[in-house]
Amino acid sequence: MNKDKIVLKNETAVELEAAASLENMKAVFEDMTAVDQFWKRCTDENMSEVRILNGEGLTVGAYKDMCLMSPAFTLDKTEDGKIMATFGIRELTDIERVLFFFQAEGGIRVKLVTGVQTCALPIYRKTESTGFR
After folding, report:
1. With contact defined as beta carbons under 8 Å apart, do 74 and 27 qualify?
2. pTM value?
3. Element (H or E) spanning 26, and its range?
């Protein structure tokens, strides 16, 4: 059975686990390097057009001007040693659109605005003793 996929503007595609929603997507990556590569591709340009494809490859959702939700990712290890990343995306607010517009058009640099559209950049890992680290 083919899985649903999230596809960014540059055609970066990641398979999603069953029962995913925009606010709670789960994807399995081979290792932390693969998670990092996907995260780095979640730039403002690539998040400007996001599609969700079903298992047959049909577009079931098309979204514009999206960003990663906070926290960017929560991570767990699967039984086979891979990384299960949970993340969500949402539409940019009007204020965020204005900030990104001025950053792109005028070269304005705002400390809180980065090339990756996310409201928070930390990646959290669950630990057995404390829950999150």
Report:
1. no
2. 0.73
3. strand 25-29
Over residues 24-69, the pLDDT tens digits come to 999 999 999 999 999 999 998 999 999 999 999 999 999 999 999 9
Give, in order, the Cα–Cα distances in Å from 1 to each of 23, 77, 83.
23, 23, 21
Gap between the Cα atoms of 120 and 116, Å rounded: 10
If you search the block for the tokens 């398979």, which residue do you land on?
15
C-alpha distances (whole Å) from 84 to each of 5, 10, 34, 44 are: 15, 23, 11, 24
Please count the residues of the chain: 133
**Maximum CA pair distance of the chain?**
48
Taking the chain, what is the end-to-end CA distance rounded to the nearest angstrom? 35
